[in-house]
Amino acid sequence: MTVTASATTTATATATVISVRKTRRRDRPPSRIRQSIGERIAPYFYIAPFFVIFAVFGLFPLVFTFYVALFDWNPIGEQTFVGLANFERLFQDPRFWNAFVNTFGIFLLSTIPQLALALGLAHLLNQATLKWANFFRMTLLVPYITSVAATALVFAQIFDRNFGLINWVLNIFGIPDVNFLSSQVGSWVVISSMVMWRWFGYNTLLYLAGLQALPREMYEAASVDGASGWQQFIHLTIPSLRPIIIFTVIMSTIGGLQIFTEPLLVAPESGLTCGGGRQCQTLALFLYEQGFGQFEFGYGSAIGVALFVIVVVVSLINFYLTTRTRKAR
Amino acid sequence: MNRRKLALPIAALGALALLVSGCSGGSGSGSEAGDPNAEFEFWSFTGIGQKDSVDRYLEKNPDAKVKLSEVGSTTETATALTAALAGGRVPDLVMIQNDDLPKFVENPGNFIDLRTLGGDDIGDGYLDWAIDGATAEDGSIIGIPTDVGGLAFAYRADLFEKAGLPTDPAEVAKMWSTWDDFIAMGERYTEATGEPFVDNVETSVFFSTVNQVSQKYYTPEGDLIYDTNPEVEEAFDVAVRAYQAGLSADIPAWSSGWAPGKANGAFAVTTAPSWILSGLKNDAPDTEGKWRIASIPGVGGNWGGSVIAIPARAENKEAAWQYIETMLSPEGQTEHFATTGTFPAAEAALESDEVKSYTDPFYGDSPIGQIMSESVLNFQSFYNGPDTSAIGAALLNALVDMQAGNVAPEDAWQRGLDSAKAALGG
Predict the structure, then answer these.
(1) S-S: B316 plus which of A89, A111, B38, B297, CB 3.0-4.6 Å?
(2) What is the mean pLDDT of chain A?
(3) Can you tell me the mean pLDDT for A278-292?
């Protein structure tokens, strides 16, 4: 009995609420706007976590870096405003230009052959006649999931002057020991091969994913028309993959210009300079050396700002060049 | 509309402000009097055996509570400390390597003047130069030396014998008593065997010679003299001459070829500060009994060492201080040496029988304790400034570059000066 009673109460209560609402509605203009304000605000809360975190860990450090770059900033001592003096010093600093050249050397030496090889291999892996295709595709990711530190250690051993694998092979052919890490180009080769080893499979898979989306009939039609494999590659594969190629080029640019771990670990004995002559010190490593090795936060930040500008400019150039090919076509 | 657009960034900035202020206001709750047995946090670097020290401390003080964090390498620990001092939560006790010390000594306000806890005679029992390194301009002592890097050379007795050189540590030390003798001896070795004599000249020669000066890169008043000080140029020149004599195997310390080089006899001599002795054993276990330890040419030497300090914002100063008093006393340092081999910085410990009589069968029972304690007791003090390690690195790198064939020996000194100048801001 009690149950029925309470049910009735609830029903009455609901009725009251409804009637209240009704009266309110009648009193006021239709509240569509108010409702929709809630609806309009809600999505901002859903996306807020990313943007709040980005603001704290991405945007703020970026802006703060620009600010710190204007100071002679000792993190545990005094901070004095010096205006653009850090930048003036930067442009006259041979170590900066050395790091600049190294960064581009390593970047070009690793990115161009890497993307070309990845594209070719993706094309091969996409052939319908290939057996064990999935196995090969899986293996491509192994270098990517190997830790950079382990990779660097192994490569440093392989390229070691006295006891390395490469020199051992060269010696068999009567070629004397090559001291890879002591020369500029030699150390670029070592680091570039590490970068290639790590990212080659990743880019191949990106290209492969793009190729898989292409209709097989297109290639069949091309074959029927008598196009060779090479012609198919040049005239079908590359143009169809352009969006993905642009993406990989931009990503490689950003990653390649900020390369840090490989040069840090390949010559650990020389600390943050990557060799006695700074022969493989990149901009990111130079930044770290100044900021966290010498505690010159102001100068380090100036390098950071310069690096930021360089990455943006190069990315824009890349974007321009890769999109322009379409118009030319 | 405008206001709403602004809301999000403002909220984000507010959160940031909270974060920043929350970070920098760490000093609040610690009580100044403090409980000597309160739990304190201790940052040490890896590979220095502080776990042993903490364990022994807890045996002596069962009521004490220690949270030991091995932060990373010496440099990583200094970096973490910098970040903490700049606005994070600081540890109560922290180890700082001597190379990183000048930057912290330059801003003594970040640390407790240990004289306030231990009295004005707090530094008396330690090696003068070790305590000088931790003393700020205003006289405050911010760190107590935990160990020093007593310097000696390790050499391969079997290879020396083949080359017709003496093998007994005392005879060897006598034969290379000056650096010129050392080079002459190396030439004899190279002639007899066709192999290089030392692993490299930058750490094995330059590190030793440049620390045997009366003034290094600074005057005692703190003025830079690295480019005009003839003692520094002479030290550098010894390394260049050793290279020109064909003594160097050009295998940098800690490079990938170093450990195999020690195992394979790619060189016969390498520097051996006390803390490297156990590393050499690990790198070349099969050479047991073939190595000997002898004092280096010239007078005394040191490479490395560290101090322990209490940040000014530490919450449990008393507890941290109790640890320093107990473990860094001469007895504490002697005990620590016995268990881990880190070489004491307290004079009484250096004079103790335990230290002086120390030998090791791996090194053919060479009188290691005797040699190393003499080395650090004879070591002279000089002033290290904030850029000492940056200048040192620039000169060292020039030597590395010279051995790699990238710069001619006669240009190496100028190359070193140029990059030191760049490091100092042009």
Answers:
(1) B38
(2) 85
(3) 92
B75 contacts A48? CB cut-off 8 A: no
Give B44's Cβ-side CA count (13 Å radius): 18
Say yes or no for a CB contact (<8 Å) between B399 and A276: yes
**Could you report the per-residue pLDDT of A165-222, keeping only the tens digit for each?**
999 999 999 988 888 888 899 999 999 999 999 999 999 999 999 988 888 888 889 8
- Residue in chain B closest to A90 (alpha carbons) equals B425
CA distance B86 to B21: 12
Looking at CA atoms only, how far is residue A95 from chain B in angstroms? 8
Beta-carbon separation of A269 and B258 below 8 A? yes
Best residue in A162, A177, A289 for a mutation probing chain B (most B CBs within 10 Å): A162
Closest-CA residue of A relative to B405 is: A182
Beta-carbon separation of B401 and A94 below 8 A: no
Residue A293 φ then ψ, to 5°: -85, -50
The ipTM, to two decimals, is: 0.77
Q: Which two tokens stand for residue B70?
A: 């091995």
Three-state secondary structure along chain B? CHHHHHHHHHHHHHHHHHHHHHHHCCCCCCCCCCCCCCEEEEEECCCCCHHHHHHHHHHHCCCCEEEEEECCCHHHHHHHHHHHHHHCCCCCEEEEECCCHHHHHCCHHHECCCHHHHCHHHHCCECHHHHHCCECCCCCECCEEEEEEECCEEEEHHHHHHCCCCCCHHHHHHHCCCHHHHHHHHHHHHHHHCCCCECCCHHHHHHHHCCCCCCCCECCCCCECCCCCHHHHHHHHHHHHHHHCCCECCCCCCCCCHHHHHHHCCCCEEECCHHHHHHHHHHCHHHCCCEEEECCCCCCCEEEEEEEECECCCCCHHHHHHHHHHHCCHHHHHHHHHHHCCECCEHHHHHCHHHHCCCCHHHCCCCHHHHHHHHHHHCCCCCCCCCHHHHHHHHHHHHHHHHCCCCCHHHHHHHHHHHHHHHCCC
A7-44 pLDDT per residue, tens? 444 444 444 444 445 545 455 555 556 667 888 888 88
pLDDT of res. A320: 86
Contact B16 A293 (CB under 8 A): no
C-beta separation of B159 from B186 below 8 A: no
Sign of CA dihedral B278, B283, B284, B290: negative
For the record, the structure tokens of B293 come out as 């330890």
Least confident of A57-71, A109-123, A135-149: A135-149
